[in-house]
Structures are given as C-alpha cells and as structure tokens.
Amino acid sequence: MSNSDILINIVRFVLLVFLQVLLLNNVNLAGYINPHIYILFIVLYPLDGNKGLLIFLSFLLGLSIDIFEDSGGVHAAACAFIAYIRPVVLKYSFGVSYEYNSIKIKKADPMERLTYIASLVFIHHLIMFSLEIFSFKHILLLLKSTLFSGLFTIIVIVCTMIIFNKKTS
C-alpha cells in the first residue's frame, strides 16, 4: 500500500465514523431500518492491503461505533468477522479475477460488485442483529431487521460509490 492509499483510508475511516454517528444513527425508518454506511471502509479496503491490519482496523471501526452508540461490542464483532471472511466473499463474488489480483472493485462488473457488497452487508447485519437481539423468541424481528436494514444499507452504499466514482470520469 502506498502513502496515498494510507491517507485515503485514514480519511475514509474518520469520515465514515462521523457520518454514521452524527447523521445516520439518527435515521430510523419504521422503527428498525437504519443504514450502516461505515461498512464501506471494509468494502473498499485495498485488495493488496495487509489482511491482519484490515481485521484490526475493522475491529477499531466497529468499536468506535459501539462507543458512540453504547452497544456493547456488537458492531466490533460484526466488523471483525466480515473483515476475516472478506477473502472468501471476494473469491466467490469475483471468481478467477480475484485470484489473479486483476480486479478493481469500483470498476468491476455491476452484478459481481453487488454480490460482493450484498454478501458483506447481510453477513454483517445478521451477526450484529443476532448479538443485539440474542433470543430465538424474536427470530422474526432479527430476520426483518437484517433484511430491511441490509437492503437500505446496500442502496446507500451503492449510491455513495456511484456518486464518488463519477469524479474519475
């Protein structure tokens, strides 16, 4: 990773935490739909970056959100887990292109990119809401929260990527 990549990731980390904490945590549609855009840091982390560092930074990212939300570590656990399984998700989303390090997430095929984003978001949300609710009695609420918050998060992440990718055109 070059120095510019490090600077971009630091700025992205800080901006996503502040955007989530100051703005998006106040969005609560229908009582259980809340976008979690901070996952974008894990999605856009460079493929050639240190995987151990990604897991550590993802844990810090989730912990930062947990501190502001007073949520007891559910975000940290979910972020660390999706950072850990990210190579597996990349491999089944992008196939051979990932094995040869020839993909750029922002320039990948839209369906492959959507598969990658949706997989990480739904896994993150399932883990996060499972730890938050922690009861089989409320399995319907768990699935409903995962589905609708996940869909809303995917829409926000894809729109954000489209908006910020236009500057390269």
From TrEMBL:
Keywords: Cell membrane, Cell shape, Membrane, Transmembrane, Transmembrane helix. The keyword Transmembrane helix applies. The chain crosses the membrane at residues 6-25, 37-61, 73-94, 114-134, 146-164. GO terms for cellular component: plasma membrane. The keyword Cell division does not apply. Its main location: membrane. It is found in: Cell membrane. It is a multi-pass membrane protein. It comes from the Bacteria. GO terms for biological process: regulation of cell shape. Belongs to the MreD family. This is Rod shape-determining protein MreD. It comes from Aequorivita lipolytica. The lineage of its organism: Bacteria, Pseudomonadati, Bacteroidota, Flavobacteriia, Flavobacteriales.
